[in-house]
Specification:
Elements (H helix, E strand, L loop, with lengths): L1 E7 L6 H5 L1 H8 L3 E7 L12 E2 L9 E2 L1 H11 L7 E12 L2 H7 L4 E5 L8 H7 L2 E4 L9 H12 L25 E4 L2 E4 L9 H9 L3
The structure holds S-adenosylmethionine.
S-adenosylmethionine (SAM) binds next to strand 5.
Amino acid sequence: MLKFDVITIFPDIFKGFVEESLLARGQAKKLIKINLHNLRKWANDKHQTVDDRPFGGGPGMVMKVEPIMKAVKAVSSKTSKKTKVILFSPRGKKFNQEMAKKWAKLDQVVFICGRYEGVDERVADYLADEVVSIGDYVLNGGEVAAMIVMEAVSRLVPGFIAKKESAEKFDHAQFTRPEQLVIGKKKISVPKVLLSGDHKKIEEWRDGHK
Ligand code: SAM
């Protein structure tokens, strides 16, 4: 079973996501397990503070290193070496299918979701195994990034997707019924070759429409 441990200040953002559809089924089948951890649990004051002002000045707040350090220590597997700690940052390495394939073979992936103006750099330097971005744009936090990565990785866990070959296929263009459709003033038909029954021609057409 692949365990995801998500460290976040907004665990409720994940509720519908982990309780619906294939991720729910994957958990029921014990192929994956998603644990949500509220970082504030590891804050050391009564206000459960997890952020502070940046050294050197500047706008906004920065996530403190100590609560994250304690959280990572608490949730990381004590027995398996096949575990990775990922920090999300727009400055990180761009996530891709190759990374998803590698991570699907692990026992545990721990995600650190940043918020505010970002995370104390010591988390990237000393606590995370990898710093990962999901694209060249800036999000409010790492939670959506964690959902994207969990979904892409889960699909590659054996048994998660019923048809193994569709788990990582970048599909060609597809059509289903009806054969003809009126959109505005245009009458549109699906490509005739797909209705021909000629498998060789269909494959050729599909190769050209990826
Ligand atoms: N300037 C800050 C930085 O460079 O980290 C942006 C902080 S952003 C408002 C807050 C958090 O959202 C980041 O710490 C990171 O965890 C997450 N985040 C934002 N954009 C992201 C991206 N493209 N990929 C992954 N995580 C992202």
